[in-house]
Design a protein that fits this description.
mainly alpha; globular
């Protein structure tokens, strides 16, 4: 019992440090430039709005029979909330350990909290996007689906997967600095290989078998994307079994990410 209490006390202390670092990171990112929050959150939202305008014009503003006649702005922004959470945290994870390298050399510092530091700014972005989506639902006169409460669970699973990937990427980036340039490129490719801007039915109807496997079978974000739309728009009933595989994969990746981070932790001080 004493050992468990010591572990819990250590975890609380480490998380307390992480919260303070996250607050400092949030303040530094948004107070160090004249535009402040506009650079870090406004720019991604602006790009998203450009995508909506361009693609809605090309598709006459609606997906029609391809996706239950859902307005394109909502079709895009509902899964984009989850995607933005993933890209914001994973994208910053490539340099987060070097950014706080002066703390890694301190023997008593809990290094495992550092990949969690970008969570604060990412959560702020999530709140803003949530208001955008809520406004779109109101303007378009569309009611949330009856199982929309499951979206919170889906978001938590997305967060678990994201943190797991962030742990792996942040640890590897210490040994492979090129990941700072490689990861943003991979994230951009992954965006286009995920049916966020287009319906999965296009891939089913016109995509080659290998492309369908990449986009729909091997891509976990395909399932996040489709489930978020089904739940938000109430297109069909969702059972707990449909979450089981995604939950298992997300939690497994979270555990794997933490184990990889711990395994590589011993050499951080030597490389920095």
């Amino acid at each position: 019992m004493a050992k468990i209490s010591d572990l819990l006390a250590g975890a609380r202390y480490a998380l307390g440090l992480g919260v303070e670092l996250a607050k400092r990171d949030l303040k530094t990112r948004y107070a160090s430039t004249y535009a402040g929050i506009a650079w870090n959150i406004g720019v991604p939202v602006l790009y998203a709005l450009i995508n909506v305008v361009v693609f809605s014009a090309l598709m006459n503003g609606r997906m029609g029979e391809r996706y239950a006649d859902v307005p394109f702005a909502l079709f895009y922004f509902v899964p984009f909330i989850l995607w933005q959470l993933f890209t914001e945290i994973v994208g910053r994870s490539t340099g987060i350990l070097r950014e706080y390298g002066f703390l890694i050399t301190k023997i008593a510092f809990p290094v495992w909290v550092l990949p969690l530091v970008p969570l604060a700014s990412a959560l702020l972005g999530q709140i803003i996007l949530l208001f955008v989506v809520a406004g779109l639902f109101y303007v378009k006169g569309i009611a949330l689906g009856g199982q929309a409460g499951w979206l919170l669970l889906l978001w938590c699973l997305c967060l678990a997967l994201t943190v797991g990937v962030a742990y792996i990427v942040s640890a590897l980036a210490i040994y492979v600095p090129d990941l700072v340039q490689v990861v943003p490129v991979l994230l951009n490719i992954a965006f286009w290989l995920t049916p966020i801007l287009y319906p999965a039915s296009l891939v089913e109807d016109h995509g080659a078998l290998w492309l369908r496997m990449i986009i729909m079978d091997w891509n976990p974000f395909y399932y996040f994307t489709e489930l978020s739309r089904v739940l938000a728009f109430g297109l069909s009933d969702v059972s707990a079994e449909q979450f089981a595989g995604l939950a298992g994969f997300s939690l497994l990746l979270l555990v794997l990410g933490f184990k990889v981070f711990r395994k590589l932790r011993a050499g951080f001080s030597d490389v920095l």
